[in-house]
Write a structure and sequence with these properties.
By secondary structure, the protein is of the alpha/beta class. It contains 16 helices and eleven strands. A hairpin with a 3-residue loop joins strand 2 and strand 3. Helix 14 runs parallel beside helix 15 and helix 15 packs parallel to helix 16. It is globular.
Length: 355
């Protein structure tokens, strides 16, 4: 494997000094880029794109050809894991992801296999290896998975949900059944992320998109403890470097101290919390990633630059900040505005890292 030319993202995750704040965007390979839309059309469909290593690599690299980003993130989907468990993932236009089978009772949970990352999701590992080769050491590659709770919500509901009534009813009425499901998912995610690390991912992020839909006690019981189990089960070092883990719980600002104790190296923050206050709360325990409101990218270049400056000032001096949006970049954003965002981070952050 080639030497890394730009390692400021990895250094920031380990809270080591950097020359400026590193930046990447969740969903940076995506529909806001015309070149992505062209490649997706060529692939035929979203899952066809995920399963074609060359095309998945192509869309992963597209944002890096446009912008001086400090990391690449594997192009895939969090729902590859339940799909590999046999639930039959498909995408309905305008409806988002759906499953042909749902998981609602003991029989359904018993029928689910614990997946083997290499054997059952080999197409993802092919994409990781292809991307690592093509990156040629330019920037680190992030692998990822959904959290067990987030994956469980889709599996129990059969797709996206506004109120998670089936998933929450299972958690509250039949907690032992939900724990069986979450246990299988945690073991599957450990295998999946370790396979990504072995294939070349240098950082992994756990997307806990729906953890914030839970109460505090339910979050600890049904989401956080399973992410802790995953962190414990992951490969700690590869290619002579630590493999850092980022946990991103959307709407998780209430529980930062607990998440900081999970064993993860960094916490992803959404835009509903002030990053300076978050830093005061977690101290030097973890790095912080975030957290500009993605819709700020619809504003003028001047407003974007001002908001970047405000967030940098709130975080303050020293290492341990990875700049990102508080959630994924949205499809209607002008690519030029994403460029302003990324350049502003590099330009305005240098002063916070001098001496």
């Amino acid at each position: 494997m080639s030497e890394l030319k730009n390692d400021r993202f990895l250094k920031a995750l380990m809270r080591e000094p950097v020359d400026c704040t590193p930046v990447w965007m969740m969903r940076q390979a995506g529909r806001y880029l015309p070149e992505y839309r062209a490649t997706r059309a060529k692939a035929g469909g979203f899952m066809d794109l995920c399963k074609n290593a060359e095309l998945a690599c192509e869309v992963t690299l597209q944002p890096l050809e446009r912008y001086p980003l400090d990391a690449a993130i594997l192009f895939s989907d969090i729902l590859t894991v339940p799909d590999a468990m046999g639930l039959g993932l498909y995408f309905e236009t305008g409806e988002g992801p759906r499953f042909r089978k749902t998981v609602r009772n003991q029989q359904d949970v018993d029928a689910l296999p614990v997946i083997d990352g290499d054997a059952d999701l080999g197409y993802v590992m092919n994409a990781v290896r292809t991307i690592r080769r093509e990156l040629n050491g330019s920037v680190p590659l992030i692998g990822f998975s959904g959290s067990p709770w987030t994956l469980a919500t889709y599996m129990v509901e059969g797709g996206s949900s506004k109120d998670f009534r089936h998933a929450k009813a299972m958690a509250f009425d039949k907690p032992e059944l939900m724990h069986q499901l979450l246990g299988k998912l945690a073991d599957s995610v450990i295998s999946y992320l370790n396979a990504q690390i072995n294939a070349g991912a240098q950082v992994v992020q756990i997307f806990d998109t729906w953890g914030g839909a839970l109460s505090e006690s339910a979050y600890q019981e049904f989401s956080l403890q399973y992410m802790q189990r995953i962190v414990k089960g992951l490969i700690k070092e590869r290619e002579g470097r630590t493999v850092p883990v980022i946990i991103f719980t959307k709407n998780g600002g209430l529980w930062l101290e607990s998440i900081a104790d999970s064993g993860a190296h960094a916490l992803g923050l959404d835009w509903t919390i002030d990053i300076g206050k978050a830093r005061q709360r977690v101290g030097n325990k973890v790095a912080l990633q975030g957290n500009m409101d993605p819709t700020m990218l619809y504003a003028s270049p001047k407003a974007i630059r001002n908001e970047v400056g405000r967030i940098l000032a709130s975080y303050g001096n020293g290492p341990g900040h990875i700049f990102n949006l508080g959630h994924g970049i949205t499809p209607e954003v002008d690519p030029a505005n994403a460029g302003v965002f990324i350049e502003s981070v590099h330009e305005l952050s240098a002063r916070y890292h001098s001496g």
